[in-house]
Amino acid sequence: MKKDLVIAPSILSADFADLGAEIRAIDVGGCDWVHFDVMDGSFVPPITIGDNVCKAIRSHTEKPIDVHLMVNHPDTQVEAFAKAGADIITVHQEACTHLERTLQLIRSLGKKAGVSLNPATPVSTIKNVLHCTDLVLLMSVNPGYGGQSYIHAVTDKIREARQMLDDAGCDAWLEVDGGVNAATIAEVTGAGADAVVAGSAVYNKPDYAGAMAELRDLAE
Ligand code: DX5
Ligand code: ZN
Q1: Contacts of 55 (CB under 8 A, 6+ apart)
Q2: How would residue 36 be classed by pLDDT, with cut points 50, 70 and 90?
Q3: Can you give the pTM of this predicted structure?
């Protein structure tokens, strides 16, 4: 069942030279989670930030840190992020040979286990791991960069995933990441998403609180 909307600004679009202040600004501005994009230069071309940065920002917010691992061999990173204070750790289905084991590993560390799908990966590929899934993250852009345009073909996938979760009685969050902004949020939440990542739609605006409030108003 769809839950109350979660807004998770992605710090990928924040000013990395002033990250503590950027985290505090979305915290007081009303974010629900802090979305933390980890890229390894292999699964996706860029390299971003690792567990040491997660540890560094932990003291700047009490909101959940929603770690999105866009990395190959994510099993090697899970424990470090758990220790660094992550609350949700999401791995890509495409990067996990033994996905069930990886999700169980995340749960065994006391964290919420998320699984993400690239736009080209069918929803059916995670049907058999829902028993150990706390969050499904559908990419609505090809991962690697902030500020890309929403891929409208993903909207049907959101509906399909919503149906699959409801049919299975799975109460995992259904989160959508990429190109979510004032023009697309109604389409995303109307299709059944209950959590949205918003990078450029928050951090590229002068007023973060206002940008988040606008997204909340426009959501269905
Ligand atoms: C893309 C990242 C996203 C990204 C979203 O690979 O996973 O979290 O920062 O940025 P926007 O909201 O600007 O599309
Ligand atoms: Zn992300």
Answers
A1: 83, 84, 85
A2: very high
A3: 0.98
